[in-house]
Amino acid sequence: MTSARKGDIFLNAGDFHFGSGNRRIRTLLGTCVAITIWHPARRLGGMCHFLLPTRRRSESGAGAATGFYADEVMELFAGALAASHTRAMEYVVKLFGGGNMFPCQLQASACRKKACTERLREQCSNIGCRNITAARRLLAANSYAVASEHAGGHGSRQVLFNLGSGDVWVRRGAAMTPVTEAAL
Predict the structure, then answer these.
(1) Distance in angstroms between the alpha carbons of the first and the last residue of the chain
(2) Where does 95-178 have alpha helices with state H?
(3) CATH 3.30.1330.200 describes domain 9-183
(4) Potential cystine with 129: which of 4, 124, 140, 145 (Cβ 3.0-4.6 Å)?
């Protein structure tokens, strides 16, 4: 069930896919974040893989894909929902990634001596923390309720999302683990 198969869609940083059917979407995350949304009644959904929380004003003409930035990914989801005549509150939403890829550098930083809060994450030098904060803030602002997440911590993750069932698996280390609402 977890190995790659013909027809799987692989998302690189900046990619977005929305659809239905017996398809699976995969991605590999470090500091990046992936969001999955799935409509249980219509059996359709999507996934994004964003790299940064927001596009800086100086990058506005850089020609980067919209999916590279958390704030602009919400526009992609909004377009997909409008085209499918669905609403954000109808979806099961899961959030992944934002791992710290350089834990030795973070050990010396001032934020390691305090409990991590959303306010501290906004100012954190760790891009993974800022990505998680941006995703949570933008999902809430766009009427999405996060059912579960596997975010933060150290290292990379592989994510596999089944569009037909809405099931999501995460691999850290050797085994794929299903992500459920209890994983919050």
Answers:
(1) 24
(2) 103-107, 118-123, 127-141
(3) yes
(4) 124
